[in-house]
Amino acid sequence: DVEVSKLSFNAGNTVTAIPTDSRDILVEGSPNFTIRDNYVTGGTFVGIQTRLSSGKIQGNYITQVGCGTCILPGNAYFPANVLYSGNRSVNNYFGGVLLNGGSTASELFPRFSGGIFDRLSAVIDNNDLSDSNSNTSPGQGFGIRVMAVRYDPPNLGSSSNVTATISNNKIANNKIGVLIDAGFPYRTIASVPDTTLFSGTLTLSLAGNTVGGNLQTPALISFTRGSAALVPSQLTSGTNQWKYLEHSIFDITDPGGALNGYWFDHPVSDPDGRILQNILRINGVQIPNGRFVP
């Protein structure tokens, strides 16, 4: 068991000078962790990060970092079942909390190298995920983000699963309230083609959330990277280009309509000609292919 509680972390950086891959709290390979009642700040890339781990993140105050909390996946051998409750993750550069359904091995523990981590189960309840709106980059500045994949070359996996209950959260005054997207589906990375075809299944249940006053949209739902949905030229130009997921399912239950007014990017085909056969379902109704991103 691992417990980190009642501590103050301040890396001393500003959010305009964040060191890449820096973290205040990192937990990997723990079957039962607790991160509780900490103060986390100081311009690290991630305030709290967990991977290959199950446990609880409760009662923390996280502000002025990059990603307030990044919760990454596990697999059958290292399950990732995480409760994220009663936290304030506010005024961060990238966003409040991120759930990632697929990634490759840990860079910190060589015994995990070569592993594929493709499943995450999370409960996100009674948090304040607000005021992340200072980043001018497209797709950044979210209250909560749920993304399918981050498999950096050399890719070992291509699919992912996230099951999440998102309830009773305040998600206000961000650029994007809730971002649901593909994550990092590379077409090229550093101008090198990546031929991997990516897929993901996101099963999200929302209830009792307050989503309001977000500057661009209450929600963006996209089967490619969120920034490419906002700036479609990223699909075909630049040193990093993005493609669409295929054979993927985004199944969202939102009976209270907190995401009403959402923007979405759900085309029939990718620019490379693939027929994608993705499914977007909201409250049991399959949404026709199309695009609405003003």
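Second entry:
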Amino acid sequence: MSLSQYILDAREQYRLEIRERNTWLARLRWYYLLVLAAVSILASFLAHDNLIQTRMAVLTTVSVGLVINLVIWSLTKLKNRHVRYYQVIAVVQLCLDVSLAAIVIYTSGGLTGRGTALFAIPVVGAGLLFGQGFAYFAAALSSIGYGLSLALYRHTHPGVYQLHRITLPVVFYSAVFFIIAIIVSSYSSRNASNEREKSYKELLALLRHQLYHPSSVIAAIIDMLEHGKHYADWPSGDKAYLQQLKHQNQRLHNMIENLLKSVTSQNDEVTNKKVFDMVKLLNEESVACATGAKRVEDLETQLPHKVIEVEGDAELLRTAVDNIIENAFNYTERGTPVIISATEENYKVTISVHDKGKGISADDQREIFKMFSKMSSRISGDPENLYDSGLGLYVSKLIIERHRGTLELSSSADYGTNVTITLYKRLI
């Protein structure tokens, strides 16, 4: 298996997609123009319309449209152009489709013309291929095009109908065009979301195959070296290097775990349930995170000297707690206290991770529990923060909610940041 099928650069992915979709739209227009010509000519015969002028107008419109479409088709085949180039091509295509519909309305009798549905084609095409913004733009363009075609027909055919008769059809069909834009763009967004989720799960399966096993092998080798009979004789510098390697491999392992667990549904049941001591888990993870951050002196634990039994998946909850405590160290400066506390009340346990740092901005607080969100207020002095995947708190929230618990965050410049986990001692 290979990662080459995935384009991880979102900008590059969008550039390739909009180029390909421009090509699709130009390709579909060949059929659209040919069908339009055939139907228009057939309709004129069935209606016993012997006016050569009408048929010639239709054929001329189709011929010009085919020539313009050939030029657009050629332009869409050009590769390695800027995103803006392909966006301009998309706008040109929408304008072309609206112009064709306006010409059909004009040549078929203005207000009595029966080609109004043609204005919906650019709206549908824009919504399905280019997204919500383009769909609304196409709806506005269709509304303007329809109104201008009626006004122009009345101007060139005086006395056919009064100006006020145009108002109601223009308003009505404009509303229809925007309703179509809303429906199509909503469908497109939902479909795109499902496709992203499917691709994301496929990518995670691939990552698990490619990365999870090597990380486990490295951990096993490090463990063998640590427990080898000659480890005690190693120079202190070599031991420090091995510990650093162990720490970095554990970080890699945690990132892979976060990726894999991020696809877990909130509605999934906890299957690997057992009763464990939450105080022991918090002590272990607090020390591990502080040691990994080389900030043991900043760790303060205010944990009860007794066992607090909690039912759940201990390894999942360990991951959630580890993510939260690690964030507290990663996003605060050295010398900033990180306080871990836990209280027990009847059937609930409340865990608090409080740091006295600079706090989290309001913008970051709104995004912090979303997938791939990264805080803009990260501490730039720590190069390890550059490798933050933006999944830690998202995964923690999923895990806590799977255990019927809640995860809340409060932060301010004076107070610092406090993350509160509330769990039931027994899963219902």
